[in-house]
Each structure stands twice: as structure tokens, then as C-alpha cells.
Specification:
Layout (H helix, E strand, L loop, with lengths): L1 H13 L1 H35 L6
């Protein structure tokens, strides 16, 4: 039982900061991706307005 608790403690300390690092990187990537996609949508909308596209 003592060995199991020791292994559990080693793994919990080893992976403690890994989750925060991955989440931080994921959300930073997701924020940039969302911003770029929003910019593409705005460009397409303004282009359609400028060329006289009929929004029916």
C-alpha cells in the first residue's frame, strides 16, 4: 500500500503543471484561430457589400 501511495504522489507531482501548460497553449491557439476566422468572415461580408451582392 505504501508503494502505491508513493507512485501516486510521484505521478501527481510530475503532471501537476502539465495540465495548466497544455490548457494555456490550447486556449491561446483557439483564441488566435477564432480571431483569424472572424477576420475572414468580416472580409467576405465587406467584400459582398462592396460588390453589390443581393442579400435576399
Amino acid at each position: 500500500m505504501k508503494t502505491v501511495l508513493l507512485v501516486q504522489q510521484i505521478y501527481s507531482q510530475g503532471f501537476k503543471n502539465l495540465g495548466g501548460f497544455l490548457a494555456k497553449r490550447y486556449f491561446k491557439f483557439f483564441a488566435w484561430f477564432s480571431f483569424i476566422m472572424f477576420a475572414v468572415v468580416m472580409y467576405a461580408f465587406i467584400y459582398r457589400l462592396a460588390t453589390g451582392f443581393a442579400f435576399d
